[in-house]
């Protein structure tokens, strides 16, 4: 553990210099960093994230990709309007195409899903004031541990399971950890680790009359389509139905505060270089029309940050409203597995597909309150 922390500190110190040099070399302004500087940073990256390459040619290729990604992180650092920090991540040796193939999912065709924007305001008190902050992580037994999808393209399944786990915990005061593997094996579209959609996952849960526990039906990092074992295991949670909310951030915040976490699907592009802070993307840097990564929306807040003395990058003095999102890339990524997006600008298309299960019929619901 001590070695990991030490390497993280060294990476943080070394990246700024090489990134500037790489950026300049790409633009033809200077010859770039000394080879030893870049290779030192790359060696630290390999140690930190346990990377090795099959031959010298592959090493050279990954080194070039790494240099390009450092330059990209530097550009994002300059262009982002929020408080986000971009730099070295576990994905810094992947091309943008490789990253998208492994950690996003295929994009939905226009008009999908044909659910309609359900939920009438009188049903759940949309007119109630939205609190300043909400963080379901602070509630006991609601948010399960951070998962790591590894090489399985199953963000859609993990987000779905996280949504049901949270709602089950809020409604029944019963902590459950549910099977992602069941969704991969029993997915009605049979895609397993090949990608999928949250709405298909919810339909799969309904078709299988619930979900088994993670303990009984554990995650294996690979799907076995058409080898569904759902009937062999006891179901420990189930849903009544699922709905899609209105594509409005105020509506989403109100529902989140009064019901619980929601699944959303966003454009994954900026997360490859993300380290921490609030991403305030523009439509150019993160097109809201092209969403390809499903995550769990667990809260929101407001960050007030003063400009840092001596900082090379001015920080906004005004407050920044943000969403808190739970990712599926392990606790060593981002903010201990979470990340934050600017709230109020449809950052990265967060309003496109806000879906949530319902574990209890609306007329039987009791009021709930999100921890501030």
From TrEMBL:
Residues 1-21 form the signal peptide. It comes from the Eukaryota. Residues 42-99 form the Cathepsin propeptide inhibitor domain. InterPro entries: Papain-like_cys_pep_sf (IPR038765), Pept_asp_AS (IPR025661), Pept_his_AS (IPR025660), Peptidase_C1A (IPR013128), Peptidase_C1A_C (IPR000668), Peptidase_C1A_papain-like (IPR039417), Prot_inhib_I29 (IPR013201). Keywords: Disulfide bond, Signal. Residues 130-358 form the Peptidase C1A papain C-terminal domain. Transmembrane segments: none annotated. SUPFAM superfamilies: Cysteine proteinases (SSF54001). Belongs to the peptidase C1 family. This is Cathepsin W isoform X1. It comes from Ceratotherium simum simum (Southern white rhinoceros).
């Amino acid at each position: 553990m001590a070695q990991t922390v030490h390497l993280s500190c060294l990476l943080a110190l070394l990246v700024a210099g090489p990134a500037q040099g790489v950026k300049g070399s790409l633009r033809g302004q200077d010859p770039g960093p000394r080879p030893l500087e870049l290779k030192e940073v790359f060696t630290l990256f390999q140690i930190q994230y346990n990377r090795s390459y099959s031959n010298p040619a592959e090493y050279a290729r990954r080194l070039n990709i790494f240099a390009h990604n450092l330059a990209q992180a530097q550009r994002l650092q300059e262009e982002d309007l929020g408080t986000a920090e971009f730099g070295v991540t576990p994905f810094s040796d992947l091309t943008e195409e490789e990253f998208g193939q492994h950690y996003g999912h295929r994009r939905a065709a226009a008009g999908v899903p044909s659910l309609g924007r359900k939920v009438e305001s009188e049903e759940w008190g949309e007119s109630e004031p939205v609190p300043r902050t909400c963080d379901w992580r602070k509630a006991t037994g609601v948010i399960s541990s951070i998962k790591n999808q590894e090489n399985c393209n199953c963000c859609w399944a993990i987000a779905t399971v996280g949504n049901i786990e949270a709602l089950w915990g809020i409604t029944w005061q019963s902590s459950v950890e549910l099977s992602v593997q069941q969704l991969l094996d029993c997915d009605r579209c049979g895609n397993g680790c090949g990608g999928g959609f949250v709405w298909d996952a919810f339909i799969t849960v309904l078709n299988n009359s619930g979900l088994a526990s993670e303990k009984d039906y554990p995650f294996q990092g690979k799907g076995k389509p058409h080898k569904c074992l759902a009937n062999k295991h006891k179901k420990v949670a189930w849903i009544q139905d699922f709905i899609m909310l209105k594509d409005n951030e105020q509506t989403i915040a109100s529902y989140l505060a009064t019901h619980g976490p929601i699944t959303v699907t966003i454009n994954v592009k900026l997360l490859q270089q993300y380290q921490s802070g609030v991403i305030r993307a523009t439509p150019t840097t993160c097109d809201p029309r092209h969403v390809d990564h499903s995550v769990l929306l667990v809260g929101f807040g407001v960050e007030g940050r003063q400009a840092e003395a001596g900082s090379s990058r001015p920080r906004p003095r005004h407050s920044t409203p943000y969403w808190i999102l739970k990712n599926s890339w392990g606790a060593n990524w981002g903010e201990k597995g979470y990340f934050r997006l600017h709230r109020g600008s449809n950052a990265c298309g967060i309003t496109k597909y806000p879906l949530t299960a319902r574990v209890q019929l609306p007329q039987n619901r009791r009021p709930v309150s999100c921890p501030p």
